[in-house]
Design brief:
Blueprint: H1 7-18, H2 22-29, H3 33-40, H4 48-58, H5 62-67, E1 79-84, H6 105-118, E2 128-138, H7 139-148, H8 151-163, H9 169-183, E3 186-195, H10 209-214, H11 236-240, E4 242-252, E5 264-270, E6 274-276, E7 279-290, E8 300-301, E9 303-304, H12 307-312, E10 323-331, H13 336-339, H14 360-374, E11 389-397, E12 400-407, H15 410-413, H16 415-426, E13 439-449, E14 457-469, E15 479-483, E16 489-494, E17 505-510, H17 522-531, H18 544-549, H19 556-573, H20 585-590, E18 591-592, E19 610-618, E20 624-631, E21 641-647, E22 659-666, E23 668-671, E24 674-677, E25 683-690, E26 704-710
Helix pairs in contact: 2-3, 6-14, 8-9
Length: 714
């Protein structure tokens, strides 16, 4: 419901918008300036008969003056404001925050859904609903939309950027986006709507959610301690996904601003430095109503749009439920090319004649895939726990349905993991797996460090580990998905050192509020793990914030948690030992793990780390994927070692493969391809994948040898 603004502040703004002074209004009304001043300062309100005269003076109707849920139309028209160039001659080649992410609709889904979860209105117990709409415009609808966004005013700025396109990345992207719109006569809009969320509340300029998203960079003002984001970078994915650098916004507020809640609209444009008609412009621009309080009434601020304007901008929301709609203008999905998702069988109308970055069907598929993979837990409920999130994707062309709206169902996208989480909520877990479909539960400790670099432990947070049988629809088996309060999957890892022949499984690790609000040190665990996440929020490990707030060794607490989780998983899935001839023979023939002979001998008394276990599989791209466990001797100082991967051959030297990725899992760190072991650790685990371009023959025809070489392994 709309709430009318107080008369005094409303009248003051209408006078500014109309360019009138209090004295001029008083003269038109035949009253004293003191009477008008009393209205402005809320000391009194005008009589009903005077209200009629005020409406005439402002050029509006009496209803607008009485309800005060919108501005009069006597104000300055909506326009684009472009930030002037810096006085010192400095230039920006684009918004650096946008370079933190790829132009990838799956990254967009992860960041925007996380933001919506963080802004969910939890008091009513209902989930936040997020809908993605892909809408391709052509012909008359495209022309009408260009008119609505005042394209003629923007064109000189885009033309200036295109002239320098070869000198900067952002310029090249923008130039390609403009050419695609005009040469192929189409434009892809991607809208993200959330409902039952807080909306962009607060003033246009002062501290608040609106200013943090629309006006500022690297600022995060999330609503709860369990929030996913902390860097203020996630919003940059919206502009990174736009080839035109343009995002339009319509927000319905949970808390009134200027006495209103519905149709708060603004647009933001991200372009590099440019010169137009001899004037230099710094980069960003805003679509809005000129603010009469700004110098020369030039700066654009948000305005309360009518239904017709919102419809012309393709920003009409389904209901008056609080939340925000972000419209990405000129959406493209460059990362889809690396995934091979282009529909080669699609006809020319469906976009098969371009590079595939604007293929609306491929965008649809990739959005559904990402939502099911990263937010299955947030969409799962059971017992007294309700889902936190509902998501759907639909695709249109000129208002007509291309792909029907598809609601993402976690029981379809992640059947095993959602079954495990539901069993936890319903209290039907078991201690050990004895039958198919069961879910085993173990608690694993996360020992939280003291802040400020102090030695000792603040307390132990008991995380919850769930293990169940894997199903084909889950994707890669034998994985642990780790999550915390907002139930977005943060970390996906394999389990090192699994015995051969175990049944395929899936595991879920619940930490922080995901483990339960009553678990000891739940807020402290949320705070600690949130600080251990990089901007992508896709793992836990060493970060600058973790070092500054705790210590440079605080990440070892997470390594110990990983070790505890792996041990618990192996205990739960281990099967009784089989006879020597059973199972795994083919894999063992394909793997060779040299022991002590793989490392040059040293003088008597020295002791070196040695490989104690190896798991390997062939990835989708034909690469070897390896997880190795190293046994560490009891010595004061452990030497650095270099993992070296070779192909086993019958004669001649073994061809050496390059690493595409090499990461530490537990008990070690990796620097420039060299393993350095944690002091006091007894075992270390690392994993890696080979660079397919370094393979001399097809992977399936090879046998793998992994060696640990002392030093840098040259």
């Amino acid at each position: 419901m709309e709430t009318g603004e107080e008369f005094g502040p409303w009248l003051a703004r209408q006078l500014r918008l109309a360019g009138k002074s209090q004295a001029e209004l008083a003269e038109e009304l035949g009253l004293t300036r003191a009477a008008v001043s009393a209205w402005i300062t809320k000391r009194s309100v005008p009589r009903p008969t005077v209200m009629v005269e005020i409406a005439k003076a402002l050029g509006t109707d009496l209803g607008t003056v009485h309800t005060r849920t919108t501005d009069t139309q006597a104000g300055l028209p909506v326009t684009w404001y472009h930030r002037p160039g810096y006085h010192d001659g400095g230039r920006d080649g684009g918004n650096a925050a946008a370079f933190a992410f790829d132009a990838d609709v799956q990254v967009l889904a992860r960041e925007t859904c996380q933001n919506s979860l963080d802004e969910r209105l939890a008091e009513n117990g209902r989930p936040v609903r997020v809908r993605y709409t892909i809408h391709e415009l052509t012909g008359g609808m495209l022309d009408a939309f260009r008119k609505a966004i005042l394209w003629d005013d923007l064109h000189p700025h885009y033309a200036s950027v295109s002239q320098t396109a070869s000198h900067q990345k952002v310029g090249r992207v923008v130039d390609a986006g403009v050419r695609d719109m005009f040469e192929k006569g189409r434009l892809v809009l991607l809208r993200v709507d959330d409902y039952n969320a807080s909306g962009l509340t607060g003033d246009d300029y002062d501290d608040g959610k609106f200013a943090a998203v629309v006006r500022r960079q690297l600022e995060s003002l999330k609503s709860g301690r369990g929030a996913g984001g902390s860097y203020g970078l996630g919003k940059a994915t919206l502009w990174a996904t736009s080839a035109l650098g343009m995002v339009l916004i319509n927000s319905t507020l949970s808390v009134p601003h200027e006495g209103r809640t519905e149709r708060r609209v603004i647009g933001r444009l991200e372009l590099p430095w440019r010169s137009v008609d001899g004037e230099a412009y710094a980069g960003p621009a805003w679509l809005g109503r000129p603010d009469p309080d700004s110098p020369g009434a030039l700066v654009a601020r948000s305005w309360w749009a009518d239904d017709e304007t919102v419809a012309s901008l393709h920003l009409t929301r389904d209901s008056d439920e609080p939340g925000t709609s972000f419209l990405i203008v000129g959406a493209h999905d460059v990362a889809s090319l690396d995934q091979g998702t282009g529909d080669l069988d699609a006809d020319e109308e469906d976009g098969a004649d371009d590079d595939g970055t604007r293929d609306v069907r491929a965008m649809h598929r990739r959005l559904v895939e990402a939502l099911g993979r990263d937010f299955w837990a947030a969409m799962t409920g059971g017992g007294s726990r309700l889902p936190l999130l509902e998501t759907s994707v639909r695709t249109l062309r000129n208002g007509e349905v291309v792909v029907e709206e598809e609601k993402v169902d976690p029981t379809v996208t992640q059947p095993s993991r959602s079954r495990a989480l539901r069993a936890f909520y319903e209290g039907t877990t078991v201690d050990r797996l004895t039958e198919a479909g069961q879910v085993a539960l173990r608690t694993v400790p996360l020992r939280l460090p003291l802040a400020g670099g102090r030695r000792g432990t603040l307390g132990t947070h008991q995380a919850v580990l769930l293990v169940t049988d894997a199903e084909d629809a889950d994707g890669a088996p034998n994985q642990v998905h780790s999550l915390r309060g907002n139930r977005m999957t943060i970390k996906k890892t394999g389990v090192a050192g699994l015995p051969l022949g175990v049944n395929a499984f899936q595991a879920v690790l619940l930490t922080g509020h995901a483990a339960g609000d009553s678990v000891p040190f739940v807020d402290e665990a949320e705070d600690f793990l949130r600080a251990a996440e990089p901007p992508e929020h896709d793992r836990w490990g060493q970060t600058e914030e973790l070092t500054l707030r705790w210590s440079h060794t605080a990440h070892h607490r997470i390594s110990r948690l990983t070790t505890e989780v792996n041990s618990a998983v192996k205990e739960l899935v281990a099967k009784p030992k089989r006879s020597a001839g059973e199972g795994g023979t083919k894999l063992r023939k394909a793997l060779t793990v040299p022991r002590k002979t793989a490392v040059p001998r040293r003088a008597a008394g020295s002791s070196l780390p040695e490989l104690d276990g190896l798991e390997a599989s062939i990835g989708e791209a034909g690469e070897w994927r390896i997880t190795a466990e190293v046994k560490l001797p009891r010595v004061d100082e452990l030497p650095a070692m270099t993992p070296t991967v070779l192909l086993d051959v019958r004669s001649g030297s073994r061809p050496r493969l390059d690493w595409a990725e090499l990461v530490a899992v537990d008990g070690c760190e990796i620097e420039n391809g060299v393993l350095r072991f944690s002091p006091g650790a007894r075992r270390a685990v690392f994993r890696g994948s080979t660079d397919v371009t370094s393979h001399p023959v097809r992977t399936a025809l090879t046998r793998l040898v992994l060696e640990l070489r002392a030093g840098k392994g040259e």
